[in-house]
Design a protein that fits this description.
- By secondary structure, this protein is mainly α.
- The protein is built from 13 helices and no strands.
- The longest helix is centred in the middle third of the chain and has 31 residues.
- The chain is elongated.
- About 18% of the residues have low confidence.
């Protein structure tokens, strides 16, 4: 489950609940009012700012659960326990004693004068349901933490200023194929340059490579792993971006 989906499930992204979440993470009223409220996606900005301040994925997920738990308790405290789960009303189908169950099925008085020892039983006869819920919550936490980490890795790749050399451009060109013109447009390569390349070269890889060279020639300061990573993703070549255009790969 993605971090945003978990937040939605817990009510964090409902209406303006995100403000309480931001406050819980330490954002000031000024930041919430003037910075977070001015964006169309405050939750994404909260994630990025929290990570930039040194917060970890586990801490972020724990905060989601803590604030979400507060919303549940605040919404109906009379029917929830200390951690925000529904209480079973007394005598209405929650925990029952064995003596109560005996009274439902026995046709006569008890055969023993010794009071039966009351035992609490979980509805359904076992604790499988409770164990399953705990395991599910654990799985969701791990999934959300993984999603949070992936999100910030993506942001790091997008912001990389590491320059691209011609050897890197040549290597990447073999994976672009027929989408080279779409990629060129996303890199702001002029249409006249794209037409020149298309007219001069017939091999698809060569067209991709020559287009990238045109881009490097026209925008040398923007010819970086980050810029190309973003353009590849915008062109639908996400797998190429994540496999062959990540900032951690140094030019050789």
């Amino acid at each position: 489950m993605a971090t945003r989906e978990l937040a939605s499930m817990l009510g964090i992204t409902t209406d303006e609940n995100w403000k309480e979440f931001a406050k819980h993470l330490g954002f000031t009223k000024h930041e919430i009012r003037n910075r977070l409220s001015s964006t169309t996606d405050p939750f994404a900005l909260i994630m990025g700012a929290f990570q930039a301040r040194g917060g970890t994925p586990d801490e972020f997920v724990q905060a989601l659960y803590a604030v979400g738990r507060g919303f549940r308790i605040g919404g109906d405290s009379s029917s929830t326990d200390a951690v925000g789960y529904k209480k079973f009303p007394s005598g209405s189908g929650g925990f029952r004693s064995t003596s109560e169950e005996d009274s439902d099925t026995s046709a006569g008085p008890s055969q023993s004068s010794t009071p039966s020892r009351k035992k609490r039983t979980y509805p359904g006869g076992n604790f499988t349901g409770a164990t399953s819920k705990k395991r599910q919550r654990s799985d969701m936490s791990e999934s959300a933490a993984s999603s949070y980490s992936s999100y910030h890795e993506d942001q790091m790749h997008r912001n990389s200023k590491q320059p691209l050399g011609t050897s890197e451009l040549w290597k990447i060109s073999q994976f672009i194929n027929q989408q080279w013109k779409s990629l060129g447009r996303n890199l702001s390569v002029p249409e006249e340059d794209l037409k020149q390349v298309e007219y001069a070269y017939k091999d698809m890889r060569e067209c991709s490579y020559q287009m990238l060279l045109k881009w490097k020639e026209r925008f040398p300061s923007k010819c970086s792993f980050g810029s190309l990573y973003v353009a590849l993703c915008d062109s639908g070549l996400n797998s190429v971006a994540s496999s062959h255009c990540i900032f951690s790969r140094s030019p050789k």
